[in-house]
Records
---
Amino acid sequence: MKSTGKVTGIVSNLVTVETDGPVSQNELCFVTSGGVRLMAEVIKVTGKTASIQVFESTRGLKNGDAVEFEGRMLEATLGPGLLSSCYDGLQNDLTTMTGVFLRKGEYTSPLDHDRLWDFTPIAKPGDKVVAADWLGEVKEGWLPHKIMVPFSFEGEYTVKSVTEAGQYTIDTVIAVLTDEKGEDVNVTMTQKWPVKVAIKGYREKPRPNRIMETGVRVIDTLDPIAEGGTGFIPGPFGCGKTVLQHAIAKQGDAQVIVMAACGERANEVVEIFTEFPELIDPHTGRHLMERTTIICNTSNMPVAAREASVYTAMTICEYYRAMGLKVLLLADSTSRWAQALREMSNRMEELPGADAFPVDLSAIISSFYARAGMVVLNNGQTGSVTFIGTVSPAGGNLKEPVTESTKKAARCFYALEQNRADKKRYPAVNPIDSYSKYLEYPEIQEYLSEKVAPGWVEMVEKTKNIIRRGKEANEQINILGDDGVPMSYHELFWKSELIDFIILQQDAFDPVDSLTPMDRQRYMLELVLDICDREFTFDDYEKCRDAFKELINLLKQMNYSEFMSENFMKYRAELDAELQKLTSAAEAA
Amino acid sequence: MKRKAFQKIYTQLEGITKATVSLKASGVSNDELATVDGRLAQVVKTKGETVTLQIFGGTEGIPTDAEVVFLGSAPTLKVSDELAGRFFNAYGEPIDGGPEIEGDEREIGGPSVNPYKRRQPSQLIPTGIAGIDLNNTIVSGQKIPFFADPDQPYNNVMAQVALRADVDKIILGGMGLSNDDYLYFRHEFERAGALDKIISFVNTTEQPPVERLLIPDMALTAAEYFAVDKNEKVLVLLTDMTLYADALSIVSNRMDQIPSKDSMPGSLYSDLAKIYEKAVQLPDGGSITIIAVTTLNDGDITHAIPDNTGYITEGQLYLRADPDSGKVIIDPFRSLSRLKQLVIGKQTREDHNQVMNTGVRLYADAQNAKTKLENGFDLSDYDLRCLDFAKEYATRLLAIDVNISIDEMLDTAWELFGKYFTKAETGIKQSLADKYWKN
């Protein structure tokens, strides 16, 4: 028997309900208003009164309207067909909705129930299996999509039968398992999982031991993110958060990408819809959309579903991780999610924490980030969820609750800076404030030495040091004046500018410059550091400036040219000639 | 507001605050309209039998035995082609002496467009102002505010932009407009002979502040009629959104909500987003573009209103008085149009992107030189050239009184680069410099 109830109070999307039976925290329910059923979630229970947050506009709702409780939490539907889909925060398929406007109470199925998939069995009758073990696979685009023992199955099962290879719909029974009591259970290609609970079903969660390339120099070279790692990008508006995140989505070396557009602009999602189907994944040569799932709950969509959207996205990521795939989750922006929590907490008249955010904000954020990570599956293979979230700090001030809580949870920090954005130095990542804790991991250091270049981490440290010293030199120049400091200060400053213009700055809209593979990053960093190692002798600071501007110009032309192409080598030759001139001038002096 | 037969009338108020009243009533739905002592009100909260109503006109003089009549629906606007050329108040009633509008009655503040059904904005809206067209190009379907101090001529700039823009309808939502500004808009629209494509919803400072809360939804419901039903290109002007947000905070304060930053309601972001996100490029060719004004307190953009606005809108246009050129300019550093990349170099000349970036970078160098000068240091030859460049750049391109085509803007920029700098100093891609460089 499901519980039911009646509406007794309404403030915006917080509704109180008088219940006639047991209800549980986070249980789903439906409110019937004017013939339309609206989805809602229990967020607080006091005696017989349940407070529910309605995922839709509550306009027209009345006291006395009927509520039915569902006896389950908000769940994600998992199965083949998730990729290249576009969902709202509650996993309704936006592409199959009719009409230009979102209609209240219109819910659509996340997966296509008629589509046939090419199924190949993996498990054999007699195999002992547990939750998340692979029973078979279908080809989803070019990815092997594993059909697994549902995550909700407890204990060990024996495979009784697996359907032979062939074409089936997702609702077809593809395996029969026998549980420890001897009872048979059917398994189809689809399963459900409550989004707020992390999917387990793996053997262990080791420390990340390799980096995930993004093609963005300021990340890969200076502060790389590990595969299975976590990072966040805080920044005031207009600093290029979204451009940076889209660049990572386009270029990131992952097999599956889930983008959660959480409380952000609808046109940004439209940009993804419009561009991604055209774009090619640089790693596989396939269409980008084939590996991408979009969860979008834009800022004008109901606030309560905003919170659900990040959990739905994470659940889909964990599902693909259990197949042994490299998954990347991008959430833009986690601040909007926190604000959704604040709006609710506020309406429930809870005692507020800092900036009126709920007091458990920090705990909620860190347990969400903890769901990312690399895992070793039961069969010994690995899968990973790398998570990068953006944060939109109020007033661009990083001393605010969401940024501070996230800083405790995430291992990489990419600080976008207003000052750099004002100067159009994009991506506006501040190289001094930003960090990657992964550079301190011995296993990552080893990986970089082996895969990129011996002693790579030392080179990166050296680069950062030149940037720091260049900044100090610049401050001195600004205080004491161009003539008030020794020439070496000017040289130091311009060496840091060289790194800034050539390594840090990158044109996200240029087809060549936007994506820099690791071997090219290595080539350019070595080239730039070689210049920084040289001692020059300039007569005056203007000569120093002109010389470096010329070097920067040539190196920039190299960045814009196809790697190792004729043009690229032409500029390289010009650069060498220029350097030769400068060095011989130094020797003559 | 018309009464219907057999309506239940309540005459016992339980509580009155400056903006709300509460009473015991049944069968009331959320967001429903009511009249209290003849004034329009809306249901904002129900708790058990108690209903809280927000009175748009303020509660001054309302007695506890006031007559309360529930009207059975959320606020509506009658839409038809008759709207064109008319002036209305916040309730959608004509204030120009003309007849009532006949048409389809629609609830205001309706549902959002399915993001999947949107199209990517792609039509450039030229304004003739280089600070906008060259550096911060506006695209149809975009939402962008002017950030301006109260003493800047933002309403004039907005009126100019509106009248130059190539659109089918212009809808003005005026919130807390001074009577003078209202008459200014009216006069400008009449003078341009554009009255037949303009619709205005106006709340002046003489009217109660809470009424303002209806203005954006009224304006956008009219906009949706023309954009969705008629496939027209609609430009919506909203001024001043800061006063709208102030009205929000008055209401939430009266409802005992815990304020967040700057005593604004915690839902400010969602409230503003619901308005701005109505900007849309529709699949059948219609579009809604929103240009708004957010006035700042002494240039402070970290205040909750401009801050939340910045996160919602697709950029911002920053007005600033420039002492060097003596003009009001569109600040190239803090201004941004996020959608400009959709049209730059696609609907404009190939050199647009590089010219834009180079101009702004050199202008930044000039600011550094200025700092040096102010600190009493000698300036290098390059610094001096930067300063001269900056002055001419501000006068001929950034000033809001410029009115030239985009090609002319680009040519002017190349002329200035050639006049003050060498090719290497500009760092422009070789192929473009070879083609466009002017000596």
---
Amino acid sequence: MRIRARSTSWLRATAAVIATVALVSGCSVTSPNTAADANTLTYAINGGTLSGGKMDIHSSAFQATALVMRNSFDSLVYEKADGSFVPWLATSWQISDDGLHYTFDLRHDVTFHDGEPFNAEAVKANFEHVVAPETASADAASLIGYAETGGFYAGTAVVDKYTVRVDFNRPYAPFLQAVSTAKLGFYSPATLRDNAAQLPAGGPGISVGTGPYVLTEYTPDQSIVFTANKDYNWAPEGSTHEGAPAIEKLVFRILPESSVRTGALTSGQAQIASDITPNTVGQIGDDFSIENVTMPGLPYTLFLNEAHGVFADENVRRAFALGVDIGPAVASIYQGQAKRAWSILSPATPNSYDPSLEDSWTFDPDQANALLDASGWTKRDSDGYRTKDGARLSARWLAYTPVSDANASLGDVVQSDLRKLGFEIVRDNLEIAQYYEQFNARDYDISDWSFPSVDADVLRAHLHSGGYKNGSSIVDPVVDSLLDDAVATSDPAERAALYRQLQQWNAIHVAMVPITVPTAITAYSKIIKNLSFDLYGQPLFYAASLTTTR
Amino acid sequence: MSLLAAARSRTARTRRVKRMPTPALWAAAGFLLLLALSVVLPGLFTAADPVRTDIGAALLAPGPGHPFGTDQAGRDVLARVIYGSRYSLAIGFGATLIALVAGLVIGSLAGLMRRLGDGVLSRAIEIVMAFPEFLLALIVIAIIGPGELSLLVAVAIAVIPAYARVARVHTLVVKRAGYVEAARTLGVSPTRTVLRHVLPNTLGPLLVMAIMGVGTAITAAAGLSFLGLGPKPPTPEWGLILSEGRNYLATAWWIAVFPGVVITATVIATSILGRHVQALSLGRQR
Amino acid sequence: MTGHRAGQARRTGRPVARLAARLVAVVLVVWGAATVGFFSLRLIPGDPVNVLIGLGSVSERVRDQIREDWGLADPLVVQYLRYLGRLLQGDLGTSYRMQHPVADVIGQQLAPTVQLMVLAIAFALLLACGSALLGRDTRTASVAGLLELVAVSAPTFWIGLVLIGVFGFGLGWFPVVATVGFGALVLPAVTLSIPVAGIISQVLRQGLDDAEALPFVATVRARGASSTRLLLRHTLRHAAASSVTLTGYLVGSLLGGSVLVETVFARPGLGRVALNAIVDRDVPVVLGIIVLAAVVFSLVNLLVDLVADRLDPRLAAEQAHA
């Protein structure tokens, strides 16, 4: 009996402790829609791919790297929304008549965060770092036009202290766009010299650029803190803001769970959240602004690997595309936040999109069945799948974890729809290292991704026989020459015509099945003023400021 | 969890037998019976297809047509939970059975062996126990790749050392009690000794531990599914359903809440049964 | 061999020899874990060079250079011996991904994990004591039993997301986004503590029952000690002694649980490092974590043995024998 009496007092004590803890820590919670500190902004980002050596703009293949690091890294030129270029770190530039030489005149007043001067030597050192074998760059090297087996890029030469010339073996039209991206941004020569091996891991004192914000703290998988660069005075021409940025501190909080990002915003613990998924966008009320930007570049696309298994047969590829009811799936899964894709280029890609492909093909299970019959997949096994010569009509879909909710649901629909045709889809969601292993060996039937890019030349990496992301293993001299011609042409109309031919080629050939045009959804509190967004829908904080009231 | 059962079974001899309230036992048995039935005859409980998507009927709240609602691809959640029982129970029971048998063999071998053999084996058990179970499971999946079967094997391997340890302790108890020596002097064959004396005494506590372990195995598998290392989609495995529904908690709670409740109920039911079995075996020993 | 000697020493009962034998056993377990880890990680399919370069293709020349630089071209035995040699000097190697010393990679993440675990253990003990004492009353025993079962059966990531939704965003009691301060630590620690609390509580309850049935309790009662005193001094001590064997398991389950908790709450820590290292096939880091876990496991076990000796020599002797 007495023991029991004691036990209640124990419980009471426990409750008291818990209540105290709750009270004490409860006090520190901020109320919604106000910044914890007048000049600090907390930004909830997905960022799940940044850890594990993905912080280097020059070597990372992930777009997320460029989007985050943009704050610390400037470019030679700035691309405006209309696709034209204005001076940034370069005051002017000349392209030689044969298209082989790009000469940039640099600003004289730019310094890196570590005090090193920005000059022609720094540009040269950075471009050499991009193409160095130790860097093992995939994306930046592709942007600069470099390939180990003879590409476009020939080298960079210092003309004088503030003039630099980039030389090419063959005309390379996308170069100006390429140098406007963060992936061809500039590290301090000192950090390239001393910290080259640490760049993929990144961090303060390592990821040193010229940008408006200095990376001052980095805790992998938790947060990246940027502090205003007080000396900054080299914004792109035509910027609405000059000098140092107004917001002193940006805290990028890495929150991979989409529901947590949305909750962080709506509860006021973050003032801005990106990568808002369609299934959580409905939870965000009217107190917040929502920016929904259609991404340019390659839409979310399924790559049908022609060099492996059943997709060597064009009939099977066409049956695949006709057998999935894509329209209603996209409408339901993306809840109106993203449109269906019809082409392998997004409508937002300047000077290239072919609108004639819209509504050019419809869900047609009958024709899909007929195509499969025609190719000899006529028998059925005990599970109801088609067979030919005893082998099941089956394709293996390779992806890496974590798979987003939307992509997972789409996969469910594709699998379910094709099952009705007797076509089996096996989905293998692997850990990323294992994925690389099988992807590089092209050991799969289907893979999937989207790749944002403002230049249609993004197709070169995906369609060219030597492209590092040629997921469908396309080897077609016609395609290669169209891509090469497009790269060599600087006339926008001529380039657009060539890219239209490529889009038409895929519509017939069905090497890739475009599914949806991705959108970048960012929601933010109305205390943030003058927030602008780049062409990838990423917030640009340089000109933004915070008000204490809404 | 497994060590908990170990601690419990070790102290069991001195323990007063507390009988479970009978209604709880009946409820647990009834629930497990229903689960078993859903494994064998899922069609008895639902007419819906657990894999076929119906995008026009996505995210429907629980109602007459769909008692548990529908998920983001318009699949019936009840059907997925019912068809999922075979995967989740296969992982739970399969992993536990493998661990039980392997642990029994390794543990009793260690216990019966002379000092050197025992020393080597128990040191080996200790070494593997030094790996946190979850880390061990992750490494096993890295080696054999993700999937239903890998999940089963990974969870099994992770808990084998715990079973082996308990099996060894109980074998030693039997050995010290003199049965083995006596049997040897009487000329009884070693196989017979093991079957007659060692196994019955080690199996009891291990079985109790195993019944408790089924739930832990299902929970561990759910954790691995959450990390994306579980079964291949669209397998309606409970952990995978739970994981796929986690970002819909605020908008469509039913996707993740129902499988969560079923997992918890399964673990509770097996535990209640486990305690009863333990109480029975103690009663018999008395 | 050594295990055998350790057993003998235990039985002879000379404290110094016993301690020495136990220390030898610690070294043995760590060496064993490092060895098992080293060879089993080689079983993971795939070329480590691919891990080092990631996406994209590089020439065979560069691949050979990488193999050379990382010593991957040597026979496995040579690599193993070199690894052991470095380990003896306290060098855990260099991360493939981060190109940082493994000791640094782990060291940087040690503090957040230790903070999380210490608070989680504190919460777990608090919850467990509450539940164990609740369970002593026959009327509330079934409630306690049910709570324990729910605690051990609900998946960790699930508990975490529900707590975030309710206490983080709904009620706004604890910050989820903040990265510093005690408040930010509460929800992750509670999440991690719940399954652990369920287990400790079950064992504690069992231990209390068993202890009460022992003859000495009657003796103590006869001497006129109050129930409270009895409970706290003798019963708890005895119960604790029987559950200290759990600690090894608890260390493992805390580290395992931290993988999920740190993922759900997006916290840095050893769990994340372990998961990322496995996912990225960063073998040196995985090995480093294995070695660390083995050291902690062995030392905690050693400590537990010593404490058990102190608390209840009779029990310790029995355990040593078993």
